[in-house]
Amino acid sequence: AGATSYTFGRQIDYGTNFEVKIVTQPEHMNCDFNGANPGGSAGYTVSISVPVVCRRNTYSVGGRFTGLPVKTPAVGATAAVPNTITLLNGTAGGTAILSSPLDNSGAADFAFSIPVADGQSYGVTIDPTTVPAGLSCTVKNGTGFVTTTAITNIAVDCVKQ
Question: What residues contact residue 74 under an 8 Å CB cut-off, 6+ apart?
């Protein structure tokens, strides 16, 4: 933990084949060789360098919205015009644009554009300048911590005022 280098306890002789393997991934992370070759044959140099890069796992944050009607319903050959609302993840960054389904059901699933790192908090709010006139919208389950799984239980409910 926290190491920036590693050394194996045994030297190998010139010409000996080697292969470095990641046997167990650290909790909440994924490590790989970032395109570097983890094997080869010991050569003329005193040391062999096999870089390992570890990244914290990330998961999507989202849920479902309801009550967001289209701005203008479809008429004949003219397509419906959706309403949109912007959600902000003020803790972890990113936005989600909620766009009313053109079938005027007012409900659909959503996810933020930026996944959130395992162990990081999220805090979802509505950009009030994007709420269509005549609607009042609230967020339920909008705060918490990401822990080893995607967040899918955020609810955005809109009602007519």
Answer: 80, 102
Q: Where is average pLDDT lowest: 18-27, 41-50, 70-79, 135-144? A: 41-50
d(CA 152, CA 161): 27
Q: DSSP E strands: which ranges in the chain?
A: 17-19, 29-32, 39-41, 53-56, 58-59, 61-66, 84-89, 95-99, 108-111, 116-117, 121-126, 135-140, 143-145, 151-160
3-class DSSP state of 135: strand
User: What are 93-137's pLDDT values in tens digits?
Assistant: 899 999 999 888 999 999 999 999 999 999 999 999 999 999 999
Q: CB under 8 Å to 66, separation ≥6 — which residues?
A: 106, 107, 155, 156, 157, 158
